[in-house]
Specification:
Length: 296
């Protein structure tokens, strides 16, 4: 593995090893979450990739570097972690190393799925590995107010996993780092304690409905539930996506606009201004994607 794609910081002999995978958009030679992991008392192997390629077939080199590090350090525990694209990598690594643990934030399980963040990547999937996983502790955290996260939250339930749902958007790990609780979560994992998140993490019915609504497109299962017309921007973004996949871009654009109005009208959003901005940006991305396709 090229030297600019990995960095190892050492703790004492036999200390736990954290393997941290970069999220998208971080240039080789830089690593994340670098600062957040500086004081956790663990050896840390930071891994980056070229051209945001965790989703690609580079895993022989990745797994070789991990095994080489484990053989040299003989850590007491191994914990894989990552956010978004890095979370896909942390889950993939954990499936290969079931005696380890993983703490993954907002992963996508498949690539090449229309309108997801990894839609332009060649098609890969870790769903079969996740469905068959019987190893040690695998913690996955999603953001409730993000269409992609809500979808994969519901999908992970169907795969037999036990995900958690934060009242936030896709940037779950960055928020927890900014709140100063990310290190505490690492400690709780390594000590085999329950995760104590700073939010009430409850199930979200819109996540399950969103998954059902998309299943006929993504998993070849016909949708038999009701249509939804409620004041909930997640539902309306999901309806926009279904309309777009069906080729009705004008209807999709109408749903996106309804989602924007629903978001602005939703109660309690003023307590999380960053969340508001993130959802406005998400809605803008939907509109920008649809604009060239709208029939005139």
């Amino acid at each position: 593995m090229k030297p600019e794609l990995w960095k190892l910081t050492l703790a004492g002999d036999g200390a736990p090893l954290i393997v941290a995978f970069n999220a998208k958009g971080i240039a080789p030679g830089r690593f994340s979450p670098y600062r957040a992991l500086q004081n956790v008392g663990c050896s840390i192997l930071y891994l980056n990739c070229e051209a945001d390629s965790w989703y690609l077939d580079i895993w022989d080199d990745v797994l070789r570097k991990i095994q080489e590090t484990k053989d040299a350090l003989r850590p007491s525990r191994v914990l894989y972690t990552g956010f978004s694209m890095g979370a896909y990598a942390s889950l993939r690594a954990h499936c290969v190393d079931p005696d380890a643990m993983s703490l993954s934030f907002s992963p996508e399980f498949k690539t090449g799925v229309p309108l997801m963040f990894a839609q332009w990547r060649p098609k890969h999937s870790i769903e079969d590995c996740l469905a068959e996983f019987t190893g040690d502790r695998m913690e996955i955290i999603f953001g409730r107010y993000e269409v992609c996260d809500a979808h994969y939250y519901a999908r992970s339930l169907e795969l037999g996993l036990t995900p958690r749902l934060m009242p936030w958007v896709h940037a779950t790990m960055p928020l927890l780092i900014s709140m100063g609780v990310f290190n505490a979560l690492i400690d709780q994992m390594l000590d085999d304690r329950p995760l104590l998140l700073p939010f009430e993490c409850t199930d979200a019915p819109e996540a399950r409905h969103l998954y059902d609504l998309f299943s006929s497109y993504f998993y070849n299962r016909p949708y038999v539930g009701p249509e939804f017309d409620v004041v909930n921007h997640i539902w309306n973004l999901s309806r926009a996506r279904v309309a777009a996949l069906a080729g009705d871009f004008e209807l999709a654009q109408a749903f996106v606009e309804k989602a924007r109005l629903d978001w602005l009208a939703a109660p309690g959003r003023d307590i999380m201004p960053d969340e508001r901005e993130a959802n406005e940006e998400l809605i803008k991305q939907f509109k920008d994607w649809l604009a060239p396709n709208v029939r005139r």
